[in-house]
Amino acid sequence: KEGINPDDFKVAKVIREKDKPSILVANKGDVRGSELKLYEFYELGFGDPYIISAEHGLNVDDLLDKIISYISKVKLEPEEEENILKVSILGKPNVGKSSLLNNILGEDRIIVSEHPGTTRDAIEIIFKHNSLKLLFIDTAGLRDKAKPKEDVEYYSTLRTFEAVHNSDIVLLVMDSTQGVSMQDKKIANYIQKERKACIVILNKFDLIKDNIDKKLFIDEIRYELSFLKKSPIIMTSAITGYNTDKIISKIKE
């Protein structure tokens, strides 16, 4: 809408110095008269600009395809890839997946909110623990019924399934206060179909009454998750840090 300004040239200079694949995006391309300023963007030296409207979704799908084409070319070195254990974190929204990962990492790397669905896409973080190198994949929460018309929700779900498919181990995180829901069972069934090693995490255990029979509680969970009968179960609290150290130990096994 406004064309380029001196700051754009400064940013372009920094990008060129990095010598990385670059995409020039001209937003607000649906505004009347904006096409008259498009020729200015060629002065930046990045070739044809992608004309989009983030507000109205104009050409955004083409831009995503272009970005994905670049990402697909980025590969880890064979040796490096072989030495990394891929661990995806799966579960319903608001069960504490991101908080749990932050606790394992020992720092707040993932945004955490009380509102379900803060993590809308899979987030990958490499974590080294002694000689063990892990690639944690914090996935978007899988809702009971994803509305087909909500594109972001739909594609987040697809990417979550893809993350599980590419993982070596899956951490199925559940809310201890809610027990096993139908959605938990569906997720467990999917993990079993993918034949993935799984660790069941009963998070928010600090909210469970102290006098609970833990063995009976775990037996009930295991009965409900019949698809994952042989999977180890760990009771944790991402808030207090209770038993979170056992997750890495169990992954090592």
UniProtKB/TrEMBL annotation:
Record's keyword terms, sorted: GTP-binding, Nucleotide-binding, Repeat, Ribosome biogenesis
A matching Pfam family: MMR_HSR1
Source organism (scientific name): marine sediment metagenome
Alphabetized InterPro entries for the sequence: G_ENGA, GTP-bd, P-loop_NTPase, Small_GTP-bd
Keyword Repeat in record: yes
Biological processes annotated in GO: ribosome biogenesis
Protein known as: EngA-type G domain-containing protein
EngA-type G domain boundaries: 85-253
An MF annotation (GO) of this entry: GTP binding
